[in-house]
């Protein structure tokens, strides 16, 4: 059973940085692509970034150049380094395992974690 535990969110001023972490269990981590999603109040959850099992990364346009996804297979952990944060980045951020598909039409697992809240003040 897949379990995902996100951490690292918080309150930050615009222009600041945060580093999110997600520890995955119940999978052979190194074989799986991983992703970060976010859900802002009143909006649908959206894909933000993904990294495949070979380390290739992809980003949606609105975070390119600001966010960096990375992984540590020894720690079963995926990270999201977020720089130059904007108020519109405020959301709950979730990680997930990528089950199938290709960028940007991945299908994630059904095992969503609790997420981590990121709030960016102006």
How would you characterize the overall build of this protein?
With 122 residues, this protein is mostly beta strands. Strands 2, 4, 5, 6, 9, 10 and 11 form a 7-stranded mixed beta sheet that branches. Strands 1-3-8-7 form a 4-stranded antiparallel beta sheet, with no helix packed on it. The radius of gyration is 13 Å and the shape is globular. It starts with a strand and ends with a strand. The mean pLDDT is 96.
Top keywords for this entry?
122 residues; seven-stranded mixed beta sheet; four-stranded antiparallel beta sheet; 52% strand; single chain; mainly beta; globular
Number of H/I helices:
0
The count of strands amounts to 11
Q: Shape, please?
A: globular
Helix-strand sequence:
EEEEEEEEEEE
Q: Give the rounded overall mean pLDDT.
A: 96
Over all CA atoms, what is the radius of gyration?
A: 13 Å
Uncertain residue ranges: none
Taken as a percent bin, the fraction of beta residues is over 45%
Largest sheet: 7 strands, mixed
Distance between the termini: 40 Å
Q: Name the helicity range.
A: under 10%
- Structural class, from helix and strand content? mainly beta
Blueprint of the fold:
Layout: E1 3-7, E2 10-13, E3 18-25, E4 33-39, E5 46-51, E6 57-59, E7 67-72, E8 77-82, E9 91-100, E10 107-108, E11 116-121
Short description:
Helix content is 0%, strand content 52%. The mean pLDDT is 96.
């Amino acid at each position: 059973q897949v379990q995902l535990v996100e951490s690292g969110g918080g309150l930050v001023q615009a222009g600041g940085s945060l580093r999110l972490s997600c520890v995955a269990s119940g999978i052979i981590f190194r074989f799986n692509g991983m992703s970060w999603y976010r859900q802002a109040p009143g909006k649908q959850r959206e894909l933000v970034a993904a990294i495949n099992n070979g380390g290739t990364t992809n980003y949606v346009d609105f975070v390119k150049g600001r966010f960096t996804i990375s992984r540590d297979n020894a720690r079963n952990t995926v990270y999201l380094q977020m720089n130059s944060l904007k108020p519109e980045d405020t959301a709950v951020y979730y990680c997930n395992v990528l089950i199938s598909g290709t960028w940007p039409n991945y299908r994630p697992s059904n095992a969503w974690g609790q997420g981590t809240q990121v709030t960016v003040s102006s």
